[in-house]
Design goal:
The structure holds 2 protein chains of 2 kinds. By secondary structure, chain A is mainly beta. Chain A is 0% helix and 58% strand. Chain A contains no helices and 11 strands. Chain A has strands at 2-7, 10-14, 19-27, 31-38, 44-50, 56-58, 64-68, 73-78, 87-95, 103-104, 108-113. In chain A, strands 2, 4, 5, 9, 10 and 11 form a 6-stranded mixed beta sheet that branches. A 5-stranded antiparallel beta sheet of chain A has the order 1-3-8-7-6, with no helix packed on it. The mean pLDDT of chain A is 91. By secondary structure, chain B is mostly beta strands. In chain B, 0% of the residues lie in helices and 47% in strands. In chain B, strands 2, 4, 5, 6, 9, 10 and 11 form a 7-stranded mixed beta sheet that branches. A 4-stranded antiparallel beta sheet of chain B has the order 1-3-8-7, with no helix packed on it. The radius of gyration of chain B is 13 Å and the shape is globular. Classes of the chains: A mainly beta, B mainly beta. The interface between A and B is medium-sized, with 28 and 30 residues.
């Protein structure tokens, strides 16, 4: 079984500051890991994904995440926050192969202060 | 860019009434998912289809919820009767792989249901 824990339901940073959103996963098999972003009353948009290739994954809008197996983590970062980054962010895990569902964390709301 | 279409975008219904949501996945995507997202929480899978067959409906409240994908293309999710606790965003997603296969899903914009 897979599960995801997102540390911090709400993160607030200043515009131009580093963004760090934390995600720890639990999986009995090698995982696929994903970060999604959701704007109000919208669906989820894929930011990036880890699929057992490079451990440092670059995504859209300047975001990246690093898979650390020893820490069972997949934290999302962006060097310089922009006002448009304000949204809800979800980390998700799935098992490799087969008809496996995505299991989501509870989400982290990112607020950007001017 | 291809999109997953969902309708309606918003639905207000009275308790005990029936309500239905529609989803049209990206062409060629064999796998279709319905998720429910309660406000302030992450999405939770309700049902997963592979073509027209149900792969996983273990979290679907079958006494009131039903889902179908008759021709393996578009899908309908129904609630009858609706309860106050069903108020949520209902998200449809599709994938061209069996499971995620590393491709991830493409989500629709969702249907926001309010039960009054």
């Amino acid at each position: 079984a897979q599960s995801v824990t997102q540390l911090g339901s709400h993160v607030s940073v200043s515009e131009g500051a580093l963004v760090l959103l934390r995600c720890n996963y639990s999986s009995s098999v090698p995982p696929y890991l994903f970060w999604y972003v959701q704007y109000p009353n919208q669906g989820l948009q894929l930011l990036l994904k880890y699929t057992s290739a490079a451990t440092l994954v670059k995504g859209i809008n300047g975001f990246e995440a690093e898979f650390k197996k020893s820490e069972t983590s997949f934290h999302l970062t962006k060097p310089s926050a922009h006002m448009s980054d304000a949204a809800e962010y979800f980390c998700a895990v799935s098992a490799l192969g087969g008809a496996q569902k995505l299991v989501f964390g509870q989400g982290t709301r990112l607020t950007i202060n001017p | 860019e291809a999109e997953v279409a969902q309708s309606p975008r918003y639905k207000i219904t009275e308790k005990s009434q029936a309500v239905a949501f529609w989803c049209d996945p990206i062409s060629g995507h064999a796998t279709l998912y319905w998720y429910r997202q309660i406000l302030g929480q992450g999405p939770e899978l309700l049902v997963q289809f592979q073509d027209e067959s149900v792969v996983d409906d273990s979290q679907l409240p079958k006494d009131r919820f039903s889902a179908e994908r008759l021709k393996g293309v578009d899908s309908t999710l129904k609630i009858q009767p609706a309860e106050l606790g069903d108020s949520a965003m209902y998200l449809c997603a599709s994938s061209r792989a069996t499971g995620t296969g590393g491709y991830g899903y493409t989500f629709g914009s969702g249907t926001r249901l309010t039960v009054v």
